[in-house]
Amino acid sequence: EVYFKNLSKQKQKEVMEKNGKNHKLRVCVATCNRADYSKLAPIMFGIKAEPQFFELDVVVLGSHLIDDYGNTYRMIEQDDFDIHTRLHTIVRGEDEAAMVESVGLALVKLPDVLNRLKPDIMIVHGDRFDALALATSAALMNIRILHIEGGEVSGTIDDSIRHAITKLAHYHVCCTRSAEQHLIAMCEDHDRILLAGCPSYDKLLSAKNKDYMSIIRMWLGDDVKTRDYIVALQHPVTTDIKHSIKMFELTLDALISFNKRTLVLFPNVDAGDKEMVRVMRKKGIEHHPNFRAVKHVPFDQFIQLVAHAGCMIGNSSCGVREVGAFGTPVINLGTRQTGRETGENVLHVRDADTQDKILHALQLQFGKQYPCSKIYGDGNAVPRILKFLKSIDLKEPLQKKFCFPPVKDNISQDIDHILETQSALAVDLGGTNLRVAIVSMKGEIVKKYTQLNPKTYEDRLELILRMCVEAASEAVNVNCRILGVGISTGGRVNPREGIVLHSTKLIQEWSSVDLRTPVSDALHLPVWVDNDGNCAALAERKFGHGKGIENFVTLITGTGIGGGIIHQHELIHGSSFCAAELGHIVVSLDGPECLCGSQGCIEAYASGIALQREAKKLHDEDLLLVEGMSMKKEEVVSAAHLIQAAKLGNTKADSILRTAGTALGLGVVNILHTMNPSLVILSGVLASHYVNAVKDVINRQALSSVKTVDVVVSNLADPALLGAASLVLDYTTRRIY
Questions:
Q1: Catalytic residue positions, numbered
Q2: pTM higher than 0.70 for the full model?
Q3: 291, 305, 449, 575: least CB-packed within 10 angstroms?
């Protein structure tokens, strides 16, 4: 720490010498509304307190200058700041067009102001449309931009605006570690990112012990006690105005029913704000004895009000950010703050579509006290920001640099490249064979290679790489462009990391294996890895019966029993990547032993291994072969012999198959009662032998509400290979990595 402080001092000294000993950094702070001023004011006080380093110019625009929103520029004057310029930029209206026109008006007026001020750096806060106009003007006029609170995630159009400002800004001050990582992921220069915390927390964390009862009485009445009132602050959601108006109406109805003194703040300037005000007046909120409706509360007083409230409700970022510093319960309504980091004091009501839901949330939250949260700051943001400003070297090139990740094998666009068939390299690691195929976008297997799966890890990995390299080379000859590699393997797989966590007993030496890295390094291609059952489900979703189906289940009936679950068009992996181990659904407490160590699993009855086991028992007792069957002396007894015997009239073989079909059917019934899919697809070599038995069990055992499910046999010849290919084709063509 001492070393860092000394290094920082030395850097500041060098910067001062470079910039000129007497040069002060001219900082323009532009504020658009009451919310951003609460974040910018602490920085402005800090800049003003160090006149030997900084010159401060304040520009006020947006809703600060509108009477309907409290003429909040006055609080800037009360804080003893000289306002250099006032810009009326809001075009009054109630739709999205008014917001666009407001941005345009600001863009028209700002160049003249910036030409006169000639700031070294402009400080812009947040994600409002006014801020986008400020950042655009400054960037085009070659003025350095410091963006406060970039990298955060929330709902509505705010995300897009915030990230657009990030791309225009030269320096970034973020509040949380996640926000910092988001900025780095957005290719911003790490050296120009400061993790400082939220500036408003510098004031919040020292505010709660001040006199507050007089403030509460002033805004809510003399008879109100602490923790016995509500603060409500709700804004329109610009991407779904109609729904947000309805949600506000339901909120007011719930608050009226809850019957507690409530301070309601007017919404901010956004499309739909006037309609929300009309809803307030329609319900008589301004004259209701339990409500106080106000356009604006000074931030110092607002802090005290939320710090001692019984609850805060609405969709303001203040609820999920600042209020956590006091542990006040918060009810966050709708999607406007989706993605924000929150403390345990926040209860989310994402789909606030009924009054009862909101009322129930009020009953759960009101009057509680939660631990204070410091997710967004520790109270020392402003000193860090001032130090960061002092370190800015004005002699550095103005053009910002982006830190793009390395891209391998950048191919120029030419006619041959365009005419190539987009394809995937698919790998299927089975218990017996290792297969590699070139699969086209339409699911056509252009070329396939098959080898026996080696028994050791080293031999297996070497063979995978050799076969993949050979297939990739051959792809050029068959005019296919390989977009990536998809690998289907037995066992439990972490698809995010491309690691086989645990393998089945059929594939030895195949646990804790990183498949992605060696294959990607050898081929210089992106690599996806998943379980073979999941791949079968993905194959059905892209090429088979599951195409266009929202909820379905695939069951693989082969050497083992596996499967995959598609729910709302997405594959379910589970919290530990163990979802859809359908072969290990227990259908009997005292059934035969399974390879997993349990008893009575579907796999112990209906898998190829289970049928082979029963066939051997019959063969050892000379009860397998019937008229029309023959076996060579050295021939290994298999499930195929059992099926043949049953077809030729062997009653014992037929009984075993019916028991296996019943076990599989009971497992499917359990799946229907748990997931309620509209389609069940049986895949694999045994599927056609089981389909009728499964349907019979569903008709006998399932609830009437799920008996209408369709049960079909897959028409895909190679579901594992096609599923491995779809891992690549579904992602690379959508540009999602």
A1: 532
A2: no
A3: 575
